[in-house]
Amino acid sequence: MRRILLAVLVLVFAFQAPAFAASQKIAVASMGKLIKDSEVGQAAQKAMEKKFESAKKKLESKQKELETLKQSLQKQSLVLSLEAKQDKELEFKRKVRDYQDLAQATQRKMQLEEKKAGTPVLKLIQKVVDEYGKKNGYTAIYDKKTSGLLYVDESIDVTNPLLLEMNRAYRAGKK
To answer: How many structural domains are present in the chain?
Structure first.
C-alpha cells in the first residue's frame, strides 16, 4: 500500500515539474485609464457630450421650471381657494411626472449611445492589448481593478505603454 502511494506521489510531482518550469510573464493594465485617457476614448466622450448637450439643457430648463412652479405654489397656497390649490397641485404633479419620464427616456438613450460609442473603443483596446502581449511575450495581461488581485507591483503595470500604442493605432486608423 505504501509503495503504491509513494509511486502515485512520485508520478504526480514528476508530471507537475514541466508545468512549473515554463517561464510566465504577467502584466496588469488599468482599463479605466486606457478608456479615459486615450485619444479614442476622449473623442468618444466628446461626441457623447455634444450629442446630448441639447437634451441636457432641456432637462435643466424643465427642472428650473418645476422649481419656479413649486415656489409660486407655496407662495399662493395661503390665498388660493381649496379647489384652485388642488388644481395647481395636480398640474405640478403632472409636470413632475413628465419631467421624470423625460429624464428616464434621456437616460436610456444615453446608455444606448454610450454602449454604441464604447464598442469601437473596447475593440481597439482588445486589439492593442493582444498585439502588445504577443509582441512582448506576455502570458497574461489582467485588468488592474477587476482582476481580483489584491497587490500588484507597479513594475508589471503596462498601462502607459498600452496607452501609447492605442493612440498610435487610433491615429493610424484616422488617416
So the answer is: 1
